[in-house]
Amino acid sequence: MANATLPPLVNCPRSGPMPLSSAVFTPIARAGLITLGLLLAGLLTTARWLVPNPAGIGTHEQLGLEPCLMLRLWHIQCPSCGMTTAWSHAVRGQLTNAARANLGGAVICALAVVVAPWTVASGFRGRWCGWRPTEVVLLGVAGMVVAVTLLDYLVRSGVIDWN
């Protein structure tokens, strides 16, 4: 058989930014986007089903999960302590309580509210709806979430005192 070349799976220009209209997804990419959106929607639904623990942590235990190992062993909260509680407050519109429980968790929940329908719609449409995320934007958002989560952790653990 001669050295045949296969047609590209995605209609992408070879250089420069990809115009929104030419960003056609492969079937696997479409399935991945739809799955991601449905997974996020499932997490949001689960957070709504859970009752936020008044202590600000431990809401995840309603799912049969163990208490935080770091809290059990060393009696200090880990950076993710309170995230499930934050989601549970945030989906109820209790944003102050969500931020108190875990600011990083509240930010991630807000992102999930936006990203879930956007990825499902983009996956069904076969191209990005509204705008195409770049690596710089994705890394910036991820960096912001990590920074907010770690800063919140340092404040909650008493390493940083705002008073």
Molecular structure report:
The protein is built from six helices and no strands. It has helices at residues 27-49, 69-74, 83-90, 95-101, 103-125, 135-156. It is mainly α. Helix 1 runs antiparallel to helix 5 (103-125) and helix 3 crosses helix 5 (103-125).
Give the C-alpha Rg: 20 Å
SSE arrangement, N to C: HHHHHH
Helix share, percent? 40-55%
Largest sheet: none
Oligomer: single chain
Q: Could you tell me how far the N terminus lies from the C terminus, measured between alpha carbons in angstroms?
A: 75 Å
Count the DSSP helices: 6
- Rounded mean pLDDT is 88
For the secondary structure, the number of strands is 0
User: Which residue ranges are poorly predicted, with pLDDT under 50 across at least 5 consecutive positions?
Assistant: 6-16
- Class from helix and strand fractions: mainly alpha
| General form | globular
Tell me what portion of residues adopts beta-strand conformation: under 5%
How is the secondary structure organized here?
Layout: H1 27-49, H2 69-74, H3 83-90, H4 95-101, H5 103-125, H6 135-156
Features:
single chain, 163 residues, mainly alpha, 6 helices
Briefly say what this structure is:
With 163 residues, the chain is mostly helical. The chain is 55% helix and 0% strand.
